[in-house]
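lol so apparently i was supposed to do this last week
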Amino acid sequence: MTVEFRGLRRAFGRTVALDGLDLTVQQGELMALLGPSGCGKTTALRCVAGFEHPDAGAVLVDGKDITRVPANRRDAGMVFQSYSLFPNLNARDNVAFGLQVRKVPTARRHARAAELLELVGLPAHAQRYPHELSGGQQQRVALARALALEPRVLLLDEPLSALDAKVRITLREEIRRLQLELGITTIFVTHDQEEALSVADRVAVLRAGRLEQCGPPAEVYDRPATPFVAEFVGTMNHVPGHLSGQEVTVLGRLMPVDGPLPSASDVDVLVRPEAVLVTPSSEGDATIVASSFRGSVARLRVRLGELEILSDVPGHDAVRLAPGTRVDVALVQRPVLVAARTAPAPTL
Ligand code: ATP
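anyway here it is w/ adenosine-5'-triphosphate bound
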């Protein structure tokens, strides 16, 4: 089903959590709500679940206004950050809880719970209690429980935040696989940009209760609409440049640019670390000041006059690009954004 936020507003005293949120999630789509802490992600999700009520605006499901429909009559399954399983029930009974409330006969309930535990990769854990399960396993059970009533929308509120890095990656891949298999409309709240980019069909970046940009992961990453999005989704360099028509002079080179351009000619050119090429040269006017090896890539901190630029290079290049090396710096990709300069430019 489709879920539409229309001019959604919610304030808590003086704190405005949602400030006119407009966003439509399509049928079968996995939409990530991404943004910094406090930008209203959870409040938006809770408005869909019916745990929270907007002061103004509406939530529409398949075009129907459900803003006033009570939570228990909405067709939504929810998974929270904290595992929130019933500690006194084993995995099977946790999964079957909603079915029991709906008075589904025991045999059918157990069969359905077994099916769901199989679906989330825990066929042998039905009898285990939450304290006998790892964090990742508890989240799988929580996911199975959320799916038990065959909801038409799945709401995930930072479901992986409490897990360690490896489990987080495996489980997010499984959530995606399951979501595609079931074709269930899903809203996935996260403040982790890598998680959002890797799991979603589209990413909605929220800022202070409003939608800043919504688009497929690559679009949000490569074509951020605002400096806020550029900065929040990945790492960004700010390099001073000079704009003239559809071209910008940056790091001594003329590069074509498109998209919305500021009217000023002195601009901030936003470039990703992977767009910065660093070549050792005894004549070079830049120097590597730090290098952090991360396996497949190494991130270099390069000083050019008063400017510091980050450059990502293949990990195996880290040896020949050690701190102290003199280098030339060039851009190998178009800037992702050209913005009006906000601070005085450092002298190059
Ligand atoms: P986080 O990633 O930290 O969970 P979020 O983007 O999910 O943040 P929300 O939880 O939606 O943000 O909160 C948005 C703002 O509304 C925050 O400033 C928060 O403190 C405030 N807020 C949310 N719920 C309540 C509440 N029940 N009472 C008072 N303030 C609230």
